[in-house]
């Protein structure tokens, strides 16, 4: 038994709606990235399948016939129904829980809210992590991680997708010789002492310390121990070290006695979404879509 409409090619229906919208085969072909003769043949195939003429060709372009005008709203509804069926099928395969990790002071509220609205039956959670939590993804405590790159731990089994970039600034004491300057360069930092994290991967440590330097001279290391980020801010306030951070990092601004100065001529910080490279999760793509849909630009972008 033949199912009504089962032989109707949705691709041809889509072509029809584009030509109808532009009333011109040449413009429609350009939008669809197909050759005009090929598009004309596809529309002819659809007309032969339906047994009616859908367009009248004129020197000025094309216009819908009576049959074409009657078919257009049904074609649009058919394409919308097919799209909804695809989304429904994807939701059927969507995990019932999804956890998004984030570090430091990164804000992910707007994108998470949009994702929850799109998937009301999924339990979507957020989890604040330590900046150097190397195992949150591999241990499956989170399904995705928003962090600043380069990551301070190995990322060879992760997939990184850039969300935005932030310029970098120098954090100094308000009494420091560079405090109050409009900007500084790498040359201005040649005599400054920078903290070094022995537990971080070299790629992260080099990026945080602006190494290698153009003159080949390594950055001076602070021979001091610290246990937390707050400890480092205390050391900066005491003028025992300086710190280089992303401009969007608001934590130094909450600490009295510190100020920031823009650094010119260096690469910005990339804020990325890190996910497990061997795993396909439809919620990851939806989170990225939610992020790009009118999400307010973070500070420092």
From TrEMBL:
Keyword Transferase on entry: no
InterPro entries named in the record: LysR_HTH_N, LysR_subst-bd, WH-like_DNA-bd_sf, WH_DNA-bd_sf
Domain HTH lysR-type: 8-65
PROSITE patterns cross-referenced by the UniProt entry: HTH_LYSR
Gene3D superfamilies linked to this entry: Periplasmic binding protein-like II, Winged helix-like DNA-binding domain superfamily/Winged helix DNA-binding domain
Transmembrane spans: none
Protein name, as recorded: LysR family transcriptional regulator
Organism: Streptomyces asiaticus subsp. ignotus
